[in-house]
Specification:
Blueprint lengths: L1 E5 L5 H10 L3 H7 L10 H7 L2 H5 L6 E10 L2 E11 L7 E8 L9 H16 L3 E4 L6 H10 L2 E2 L4 H4 L5 H4 L12 E4 L1
Parallel strand pairs: 4-5
Antiparallel strand pairs: 1-2, 2-3, 3-4, 5-7, 6-7
Length: 185
């Protein structure tokens, strides 16, 4: 049974380690052009995932949730999922997700967490969610399609606020390296 709980500042370091130092990190790091010598520092991570993602102080801009699972009375953290909206037009938000290790993938936990967060943000008034996995991340693409995301051609001005187009339109993996996916809520 997957549940989401609001992340706290105490979760941020764990989330950083899951992303950059777990057994799937080599794969993701390579896709983002990070070699072992230039993996983003925790300080860099905090610039992307500022306090408000973990203390709930700017819910209109974004928020992180810890994906949890309760088994035999014990609740375990499985990964993290977030929505981010500060850079996008009205009623559009972007999800990001990673589980804490390879052995946690392939059980539907991530897919279920996306469905739960999609239901929550629909309740907040959003009508579209975007995700931009690397075109080489077949597991992520498959998961997002199972949720109902569709591949679309990116028209930046239909999604991004004008001031953020230059910084965000090319995505995390460089031009032509990601798949632009949209879920209509
Ligand atoms: C992407 C991610 C959130 C998807 O969540 P998930 O719970 O693993 O998704 P699912 O279990 O529903 O798997 C999706 C599909 O990929 C396949 N898959 C999942 N893990 C796999 C693995 N380790 N090896 C091969 N196939 C795998 C599954 O078979 C499934 O397809 P199916 O339903 O047709 O069988 C999760 O795998 C993850 O955190 N990956 C590492 C971090 C990452 O890539 N984040 C996304 C960045 S954009």
């Amino acid at each position: 049974m997957i549940k989401l709980r609001k992340a706290t500042l105490g979760d941020r370091k764990k989330a950083y380690q899951w992303l950059y130092y777990s057994d799937f990190s080599d794969f993701l790091n390579k896709l983002q052009g990070h070699t072992s010598g230039n993996i983003p520092s925790y300080k860099d991570f905090k610039k992307d995932y500022m306090d408000y993602f973990f203390d709930g102080s700017q819910l209109e801009d974004g928020c992180c949730f810890i994906i949890t699972c309760k088994k035999e009375g014990i609740t375990e953290d499985l990964g993290i999922i977030s929505y981010t909206s500060f850079h996008l037009l009205d009623k559009i938000t972007e999800f990001d997700i990673w589980l804490k290790g390879l052995s946690y993938t392939g059980h539907g936990y991530g897919t279920k967490a996306i469905l739960v967060l999609a239901g929550m943000v629909r309740g907040f008034g959003y009508d579209k969610v975007i995700m931009r996995p690397s075109k080489h991340n077949k597991v992520a693409i498959k998961s997002y399609k199972k949720v109902g995301f569709m591949e679309k051609e990116l028209m930046p001005c239909e999604y991004y606020k004008t001031d953020f187009i230059d910084e965000f339109a090319q995505g995390d993996y460089g031009p032509g390296e990601d798949v632009f996916m949209v879920l209509d809520l």
